[in-house]
Amino acid sequence: MSRIASPRAETGDVSLDRPDWDAMDFSAARRLAASGARVGSSLIAQDRTGAGALALVRDERTGWLVIVLTDLLTGQSFIPTVVDAAETETRLQGSVAATDGPTLHYVVARAESVESLRMRVPDRVWAVHEANAEGWAVGCLSIDDSSTCPRVEILAGGVWMTFD
To answer: Could you list the mean pLDDT of each consecutive 10-residue stretch along the chain, which spans 164 residues?
Structure first.
């Protein structure tokens, strides 16, 4: 299972399982996410769908992966959590709601069996996101109705299944 950290749950103890929050360069992660750069050594994966964007950025100081979400209409960015880059299996789904604007829903998946993932708002077309060369499949949807959650499925072994 993946090691995922949230600043709200952090106790301040530093161990191999927990990121060093003070050492992370969140400003650099936000700059890289906003730069329009292509996936490379520090930008692990990205998605832009509608008014939402997700960038999975490697923190150069700690090696942890920072999830940066951006509302493309307002320019607001959010860092809901970080993920341990050493984990071979990660499945993460969440959302952030800005004070003004839509709710940004995101999915991050990495596993040997995951070929791609797909997301959609009810009654809309699926947005399919293929896993990249490092095995990361990511997606982000911007939804104006905060009570609506997207449907998410992963393709594993040629079969679409509900994302858990």
So the answer is: 46 59 95 90 92 95 96 93 94 89 94 94 93 95 90 95 88
